[in-house]
Amino acid sequence: MVDPNFIEVNEIKDFSTYLASIEWKDPWLIVLVSMHLLTTATAVLTRNHGTFQIVLFLVLLSLVYFSESINEYAAANWRLFSRQQYFDSNGLFISTVFSVPILLNCMLLIGTWLYNSTQIMAKLKVAQLKQKLRQESSINSMSHEKAD
């Protein structure tokens, strides 16, 4: 039985048509989207835990690296978990729903690291300026004592 909302491959003209052709209520896609949201929440909530974020970053990049192998496996076994065969040889589907969201999470992690770095550098500079002021004030007070 063919779904009446099913879009033939030759009917796909642009990216929005492609996204519309995906059956987003498929349970495994709901789990995948939930995984991406959970990953984003984890990245945000662990922003002050650098070691954990590095491990998360490396795991995410590893998943992207192996996405071609995942795509090949999924293309061979799609009937086990999906209602439609999405896994094309060019990897458009896996790139769209798997790799791009993961890479966006990686960019979020890098942005967090850059922000934290700027905050640390600003605190360091303030501490250096305070130290310099203390040294200058102690030198000035010593020179005033010697003058008296």
Automatic annotation (TrEMBL):
Domain of life per record: Eukaryota
Transmembrane segments: 28-45, 52-71, 91-115
A Gene Ontology cellular-component term: nuclear membrane
Entry's Gene Ontology molecular function annotations: DNA binding
Family annotation (Pfam families): TMEM18
Keyword annotations of the record: Coiled coil, DNA-binding, Membrane, Nucleus, Transmembrane, Transmembrane helix
Predominant subcellular localization, coarse grouping: membrane
Subcellular location: Endomembrane system; Nucleus membrane
Membrane topology recorded in Swiss-Prot or TrEMBL: Multi-pass membrane protein
Protein family: Belongs to the TMEM18 family.
Full protein name: Transmembrane protein 18
Protein species of origin: Hermetia illucens (Black soldier fly)
